[in-house]
Amino acid sequence: MSPDAAVLLAVLGLPFLGAALVPAVHRVLGERTAYFAAGVAAVCLALLATQADAALHATPDAGAVVVPWIPALGVELALYLDGLALLVGFLATGVGVLVFTYSAGYMRDEPGTQRYYATLLAFMGSMLGVALAADLIALFVFWELTSVTSFLLIGHYRTTDAGRYAARKSLFVTVVGGLFLLVGFVLLAHVTGQAPGLARTFTLVGTEGSLLANPEGVRGALETGGLFVPVVALVVVGAAAKSAQVPLQIWLPDAMEAPTPVSAFLHSATMVKAGVYLVGRLRPLFLPPDVAVPEWTLLVATLGLISMAVTAVLAVGATDIKELLAYSTASHLGLIIAGYGLANEAGVETGAFHIVNHALFKAALFLVAGIVAHEAGTRAIHDLGGLAEHLPVTAAVTVVAALGMAGVPPFNGFYSKELLFEATWDVAAHEGGLYLLFPAVAVFGSVFTFLYSIRFLMLFFGEPPDGLADREIQAPPWSMLAPTVLLGGLAGLVGLAGVLATVGVHVEAFETFLASVVASSAVAGGHGFEYHLPTSPSPYAGMSLLAIGLGAVLYPSYDRLHRGVRRLRAVPHTSPDAYYDAGIEGLDRLGALVPRYVQTGVVRTYAAVLLASTSLLVLGGYTAAGADLPAFDGFVVGLPIALVLLVAVVGAAAVGTAPSHVAGVLTLSILGFMVAVFYVLASAPDLALTQLVVETLVLVILLLVLDELPAFYGEATGLRSITDGFVAALVGGTVFVTVLVATAGRPDDRIAEFLVENGGVPAEHGPVLLDAGGGGNLVNVILVDFRAFDTLGEITVLAIAALSVLTLIAMRGTGGAP
Amino acid sequence: MSDGQGRPAGRRDPRRETTVIARLVTRTVVPLILVTAVALLVRGHDLPGGGFIAGVLTVTAFALTAIIYGLDELEETLVGVTVPGRGVLSGVTETFAGTFAAGLALAAAGGIAAMLAGYPFLSQAVVFVEGVPLYHEVELASALVFDLGVYLVVVGALLTILKVVGRE
Question: Which of A43, A54, A173, A475 is deepest in the core (most CB within 10 A)?
């Protein structure tokens, strides 16, 4: 059973349509545009929900909705819906509804709300595209669209330096990561084309020939080509940049410059989940069955675990509540990626389940952070405390969400973290050796996770600091409170379902849904999924206990740890941030060199640079393509042609010694006319005519132009004549080689034969000829009939050139105004 | 083509004074060049020639006139536009620009006409008309319309460039 094509296309199209309508809607509704956007998200959510049944029974070899896009290249807009895609779609639209509602309160009286809602809707559409796309190219396009829209959203306050810095940083890191991804995708498609039994395809999933339907064949092809590890590494770099994994996490803390609803949406539930989603989606492709620790695990699980631990430590060093949440997000994404990286069943369950849990508790906590910043007027951790007195409902939500984040039973984060412990323990128990580090690092990261989660929770308890005690803190508006409570409530319900399952009451719908999410990334088919509190002692329960216990012991010395982490961060050369800043500065300096050496404003420089680089590119191209020069077998021209060419050479030599520009141009025309004579001798009347006429006209135009220039510039200096001579020789050599290579090529002249056969007037013909040229001049027949489209393009270029001359010269000095 | 009266050269730069021989030769040659250009355009389908060459040749005739008689003379007598115009797209430049725009439109319209008849864009056809006096059989190629478009674009574009560069 495959999903309804119209519904999927509507889900994808509606957010973009809504974004386009925002300006008009804003005129009517004003600040209430938020509810319009929430409505669009709700419709998408409902439409997705109608397809849930199809998604739960999806198999990777069928069910894709295919719309041809670039058929010649095999690129199509293929959409596919399975558990994982449905989950990300639900997150994008469901959290979308809540964030839009929240924005109605948060963004009141903020500048640029039209832009804000339009971009946020477009972002939601791009995210749905990432989730639904079953074609690598479409996936990449939507992937980059999320980067671009998130750039606009992070830089929402575009007049602040911090906002601009953060927006540029996130764009730079995620887009460069995206380029890695693109290379990986292209290699993947290329390699499948080489494999026996596989056709080159960009389709990822959902058809019989798609990559995920033939994982064995694709892996085999990659390994034969020696490209398995490179492709995996390229894809993982792309995913790591998007999901803020070490050392590319640097953009996420800065991105907190964005309005808080944006952070709640992009940096907890959606955009950063794109990288995780990709890892989960490609897991069955790169993970061979029956290997305990494949390359995939070494790369992905190690990356995830290191990120989880490092960013958890960094979160303890945070001074701002949103910075804390940002590092925590990177840490939890590391946890998910580590889960997907491990080859066992508990691993994939960790990834799938923690996507849900993290989205719920982290989106809730971001909304809480927004409420705190909005009502208390500060985001600095040290200036906050005892807020529960003024914000009791928010405090209750925070208890549920923060304890879920800490991994304390029975709250939701506990179950998925327990699964990670189980997965790492399994690997360590079977493999031993260095793999013992897997569970150790997981516990280490969890201790710090516990620490910062409790620190966040303690914003609401204890004595309020001096500055805050005087401030009158009001309750947030319902539009901000309701989404927060709903998200916190959902997080609580997930935890509650685990408790119920322990006593034998299962929430079937939720478990079936999770099972299908797991099945999307599992290597060997689907099976059921359930979770509950540990009922008997196990190593993993011990690890949970250890993490929480250590955290509780260390919490009283939180301030010392906080200062320690800050001192550690201050050590030079340890922060990837410094490398990013140095790199950008280096690019700036490199950019400053360009005007000094290339954009000098002197035509001579431009000509030299353009000609020399074009020649080098062309020669490089010949070398790379292995073009052969034909063997030299003596001069074969007759005496007349030799004479004409000799005169041409003499003319060319005379140009260099001409005493003035006018004399030079006139001498140059000797060369041109000799070439025309050569065409006549070589039986090419069309070329000869054209050459003659064009030569005449060019001569006239040059003389007109030269009339206005100084007669002579004087002798060239030594160095300049050497460089000019070099460039001239290079260009001449390139043209020479090009002519040799081009004429040496003897392809099967089928097109030429076709043209010769069909160009003329056939001996037998009716009164009307449609399928043949019907002309005696084959050159012209090609120009106006067989290749008329090319000619149309050329005369368009000519017209554009005339327009350019018109605008460039005639409008010069008018400052652009006609 | 030329008004045949020879204007007094008083208002032109005396440095640019051209000889009577040059002016006489130009006046004789320019009509010949233009007729040759039209001939090249029409016969292009069967013999060396075509819209591009014909266009460039026409422009050469205009350029010759401009050099010998000056741009003003060219505008007034050959093109027949005397509005001096201060803007970029006014006076004679507008005529030139209009020429290449019309040419582009003509070439594209020919292609679209083929589409309207149910053939691919820019399909061309040839019709043989029998029994024409003197010629017996005349071959009418729809490609001539396209070639005429090319011709107009070349003439219009090159004259625009010539005019703009020449005015500097």
Answer: A173
Number of neighbouring beta carbons within 10 Å of residue A143: 30
Quote the tokens at residue A517. Answer: 């999410």
Residues A566 and A610 in one domain: no
What is the spatial distance between Cα A258 and Cα A254, in angstroms, rounded to a whole number?
9
Contact (CB<8Å) B93/A810: yes
Q: Which residues of A touch B51 (CB under 8 A)?
A: 784
CA A403 – CA A395 distance, rounded (Å):
12
Residues A341 and A246 in one domain: no
A752 touches chain B (CB under 8 A): no
Q: Which residues contact A676 (CB under 8 A, 6 or more apart)?
A: A688, A691, A692, A695
Residues A183 and A330 placed together within one structural domain of the fold: no
- What are the tokens at A287? 């993970």
Q: Kindly report the nearest CA distance between residue A721 and chain B, in angstroms.
A: 29
Domain identity same for A538 and A607 = no
Pair A558, A617 in one domain: no
Contact A75, A182 (CB under 8 A): no
Query: How many Å lie between the alpha carbon of B73 and the closest alpha carbon of chain A?
Result: 16
Chain B residues with CB under 8 Å of A799 CB are 100-101, 103-104, 153, 156-157
ipTM reported for the complex, 2 dp? 0.86
Q: Tell me: the pLDDT tens digits for B109-166?
A: 988 988 888 888 888 888 887 777 777 777 788 888 999 999 999 999 998 888 887 7
A residues 783-812 lying closer than 8 A (beta carbon) to B: 783-785, 788-789, 791-792, 795-796, 798-799, 801-803, 805-807, 809-811
Decide which of A270, A286, A302 is a domain's last residue: A286
Structural domains counted in chain A: 3
* Helix A412-431 / helix A321-341 crossing angle, nearest 10 deg: 40
Q: Does A432 map to a domain?
A: yes
On whether residue A782 sits in a domain, the answer given is: no
The one-letter code for the residue type at A619 is: L
Strand partners, A380: A320
Condensed to tens digits (0 to 9), the pLDDT of residues A458-476 reads 999 888 887 776 777 888 8
